[in-house]
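Tutorial, part two.
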Amino acid sequence: MKNRCSSAYGVLALVLVAFLPGCSRGNPEVAKRKYLASGNSYFEQKKYQEAIIEYRNAVQQDARFGEARLRLAEAYVQIGDKPNALREYVRAADLLPNDAKAQLTAGGLLLDAGHYDDAKGRAEKVLEGDPKSVEAHILLGNALARLRDFESAVKQLQEAIDLAQRRTNLTDTGYRRRVAELENRLVAWVLAKPSGCSDDLRRLHQHLCNHITEWFVFLHEPEVPPTNNHAERMLRPAVITRKVGGCNKTLLGSLVHSVLASIMVTCKQQGRRFLELAKRLWQGGEPQAIPLVPEPDS
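Running the prediction step on this input gives:
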């Protein structure tokens, strides 16, 4: 009888051993905690790729598992994967609204990526719970400074366009004074570029530097439009044709297409016949510039 009971208990134990892992796999709450613990173990060993796999497994069990997303973001930082780190930090901060560190870290990455409004929102969220947070005030100040920098450049260009439209309503002296003011402000903005700015702001700054003498040409030459909107609209049919035709197959074909499209539109604007002009240019032998003013009919 005793042997029979021992055998029964042995069989029961084997059944439980086989059954419990299945229960863990079938229970997302248990599984996600198991994956998180495993990921933390790998992280402590500096095995970040293995940790990422485990943290992602945890997130697959529960997409709203903020703690796992936070650790996943930290692992991405360790391997230098900034885009994924930013994405996971933002998700973690959304899922952990009371975690000040998560909010500030996400805000810092958003600031570096040029998402100034979002960074500002993260700082303000921390300050709601802790008005004396020095890190949150610094983040908020940096975000506001970047917003002012970018908006200042855009505002100056908008003011220049508005000034060009009001040219006839101003005296010549008043107009020239306003042009000088705008040009000086643009130069000052370029010279005062903040350090540690985002890639977007850095590209804008470099573009302004490279073409500093060209931005306000339309303020000095009334015939020059302030934007290229009209040119883009005129070339739009050629772009559509290129796309419908399966695009250009070679670089040379693309260059030829762009030149011909531009010449055709110029001919249309000047009331010329493109085929006649093309024939003349072809027979001329030497490169010729198309006159800006239509030639009188012979």
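Residues 134-165 form the longest helix (32 residues). In part three we will examine how such features are distributed along the chain.
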